[in-house]
Amino acid sequence: MSSAFEDVIHDLAEEHAALERVLRAMPDSTWDLPSHAPGWLVRDQVAHLAYFDEAAELAIRDPEAFTATVAAATAANSNVEEQYLAKGRAMTHAALFDWWKGASSSLVAAARLVDPKARLPWYGPAMSGVSFLTARLMECWSHGLDVVDVAGVPRTDTERLRHVAFISFRARPFSYATRGRTMPEIPVRVELTSPGGEAWVFGEDDAVNVVRGTATDFCRVCTQRRHLADTTLVIEGDAAREWMEIAQAFAGPPGQGRQPGEFPKEPAPK
């Protein structure tokens, strides 16, 4: 039986493969289309993944070098986002694909060498190996969704989405903290239908605040790829609604999210 750590490495590699199929199938012109993230092109989504997969590999293979790099960038007040976007925009789409492909493959290779008990440095607090790689999987899925949303190339959600759903549920306190707000001490339960039709439940059984719906909708809201109004999620209780209105599973300051009406609602499963 494989461990949770081995499972997430396998699923991260599979998520990379799913995005690779989309990128290989896209017409050349798609790389320069605007994505739904304001100011970002499709190519910018790929550059983001390439840059941070490279950074993640460095954090695994040489934690001290990674920490020094982050400290130097902070001390210099460097605009890292501006730098990697400029790098990606200066590349041909083929070169950008190769950058991302090399970075993602190297990350998976490095992950196989990690001691599952080790804590890995990142831009915030150090993370366990499972959490570290789950965050990379979430990033691949969510930024890949930004590509899929405009590329016209399908990418079917799978049971790998459980990783994203779990980290999204665990990130409820962060959704408040990143906004300087105090989370109410009221439990919220999440009841989801997986892409394969399974029931996924997170939280306390007796919670009266509940979020119900598809894992796809829940993960899209928590990664700010869909506005809550554009989903079929059923929200019960003020605490559950408040959380879903500010949900954020990814690190960093509050994102802009998406506006109501940008996407049609997908039908709820029968």
Provide a short characterization of the protein structure:
With 270 residues, the protein is an alpha+beta fold. The protein has ten helices and six strands, in the order αααααββαααβββαβα.
Could you walk me through the main structural features you see in this protein, from its secondary elements to its overall organization?
Strand 3 (188-193) and strand 4 (199-202) form a beta hairpin. The strands form 2 sheets. A 4-stranded mixed beta sheet has the order 4-3-5-6. Strands 1-2 form a two-stranded antiparallel ribbon. The two termini are 33 Å apart. Helix 1 runs antiparallel to helix 5. It folds into 2 domains: 4-151, Four Helix Bundle (Hemerythrin (Met), subunit A); 161-246, Nonspecific Lipid-transfer Protein, Chain A (2-Layer Sandwich), CATH 3.30.1050. It is α+β, with helices and mostly antiparallel strands. The protein has 10 helices and 6 strands, in the order αααααββαααβββαβα. The mean pLDDT is 95.
Keywords:
52% helix, 4-stranded mixed sheet, 270 residues, 6 strands, alpha+beta, Nonspecific Lipid-transfer Protein, Chain A, globular, two-stranded antiparallel sheet, Four Helix Bundle (Hemerythrin (Met), subunit A)
